[in-house]
UniProtKB/TrEMBL annotation:
The keyword Transport applies. Residues 1-149 form the AP complex mu/sigma subunit domain. Belongs to the adaptor complexes small subunit family. It comes from Pelagomonas calceolata. This is AP complex subunit sigma. It is found in: Cytoplasmic vesicle membrane; Golgi apparatus. It is a peripheral membrane protein. PANTHER family: ADAPTOR COMPLEXES SMALL SUBUNIT FAMILY. It comes from the Eukaryota. The keyword RNA-binding does not apply. GO terms for cellular component: AP-3 adaptor complex; cytoplasmic vesicle membrane; Golgi apparatus.
Length: 179
């Protein structure tokens, strides 16, 4: 099972975080516990030389010793999947590759700013691939089709909302000079 997906930049700033298993830490709020996990994950993966493998077994305090970190470092971003020991290392590496390729196709040469300014779309893509810690889809064509459908639905609902707001505003304000 996938326990969490964390994307951080080279400075340790979280860009996308999705937790599928709750993290708890004595004396900390849930948000503080998640921030602690992000800091621990960043510290562990950033200190490893690029020549080392992309699998890291160790202890993330809040998830226990049965957690593996599988990650890829692309340009300025670390894509980290925290998984239990039963998950296939190569399977998760392939899943990261599918995720990055989907991002690249959606944003044309994806960069860190795309993750910041289009986080909703990034979450759509991630939701097409992983839901509740389980892998749903790995076929990139199917993933992109689902994301495109969601984007069209969002655009349609936004245009209807804007149209309704425009009508409400013009009705409320009334015509100039009419009392």
């Amino acid at each position: 099972m996938i326990k969490g997906i964390i994307i951080v930049n080279n400075s340790g700033q979280a860009r996308i975080c999705k937790f599928f298993q709750q993290v708890h830490r004595e004396g900390y709020s849930p948000e503080e516990a998640q921030q602690s996990v992000v800091q621990q994950v960043y510290k562990q993966v950033s200190e490893r030389p690029d020549s080392f493998c992309n699998y890291l077994e160790g202890s993330i305090m809040q998830w226990g010793d049965a957690t593996k970190l599988i990650y890829r470092h692309y340009a300025t971003l670390y894509f980290v999947f925290a998984v239990d020991k039963l998950e296939s290392d190569l399977g998760i590496l392939d899943l990261i590759q599918v995720f990055v390729e989907a991002l690249d196709k959606c944003f044309e040469n994806v960069c860190e700013l795309d993750l910041i300014f289009h986080s909703d779309k990034v979450h759509y893509i991630l939701d097409e691939i992983v839901m509740a810690g389980m892998v749903l889809e790995t076929n990139i064509v199917t993933i992109l089709s689902g994301v495109n459908d969601q984007t069209k639905l969002h655009q349609k609902s936004t245009s209807k909302l804007n149209e309704a707001l425009g009508k409400a505003t013009s009705t409320k304000m009334g015509s100039p000079g009419v009392r």
